[in-house]
Amino acid sequence: MDDVEILDVDDENSPRRSLLKNQDLSPLGLTAGELLSQYGWHLLVATVMVYLLIQHLRKRRSSHSTPPPTLQDATLVARRQEAMEAARRKMQEELDAKAAMFREKQKQQEEEKRRQKIEIWESMQQGKSCKESANLSQTSEEASSSPSALKPKTDKKPLRSADYNPLNGQGGGSCSWRPGRRGPSSGG
User: Fold this and answer.
1) Is the overall model pTM greater than 0.70, yes or no?
2) Contact yes or no for 119/136 (Cβ under 8 A)
């Protein structure tokens, strides 16, 4: 529609050719589409920077406007610190109690080992063998141990049947045993 030609006829009957253009927007020069196509990324970056600056200024203003701590806040903080200190003290006492129990058990075990060594040495002096004294110490140790001690399982299944013999060749495998050659090799 922009390239429409209109012929005007004047009084002298001389035709005049002119192209119609939008005369009222010509001073702007650039349309919105041309502006965005040329400076779109610049406008986007500038908009984001202004947004971030506004957010930063809001945070800064809100942090300066906080009321000063009151006496009630100070007492609340003091109570929290006292409660935390009491909890820490309680945990430390529990840890110390556990450590004392562990040290006591260690001392008992060391005393038991020392006593067993003395028994073994005395039995050696009397002429008994080490195995007999070891058996005696094990039976006494088992009697003194707690009922949660490990006991051997008696209901174990055998790994293979009782009639299994690998030399029979009935194992179901692809390999079977063959005897080696007898005599000298005939290689030459």
Assistant:
1) no
2) yes
What sign for the dihedral angle of Cα 45, 47, 51, 57? Answer: positive
pLDDT, tens only, 129-184: 766 656 655 665 555 555 555 666 677 787 777 777 777 766 555 566 677 778 77
DSSP 10-69: -TT--EEEEE----SSTTT-S-HHHHHHHHHHHHHHHHHHHHHHHHHHHHHHHHHTPPPP
Of 122, 106, 115, the C-alpha closest to 140 is: 115
Asked if 110 contacts 102 with a C-beta cutoff of 8 angstroms, the reply is: no
Element (H, E) at 6: strand 5-9
The answer to whether 130 and 124 are in contact (CB under 8 A) is yes
Q: In whole angstroms, give the CA distance from residue 162 to residue 94.
A: 57
Tokens of 64: 């300066």
Closest by Cα among 101, 135, 98 to 116:
135
Instruction: Using the Cα atoms of residue 48, residue 50, residue 52 and residue 54 in order, give the sign of their dihedral.
Output: negative
Are residues 130 and 120 in contact, defined by beta-carbon separation less than 8 angstroms?
Answer: yes
The residues that bridge with 7 in the sheet, in sequence order, are 17
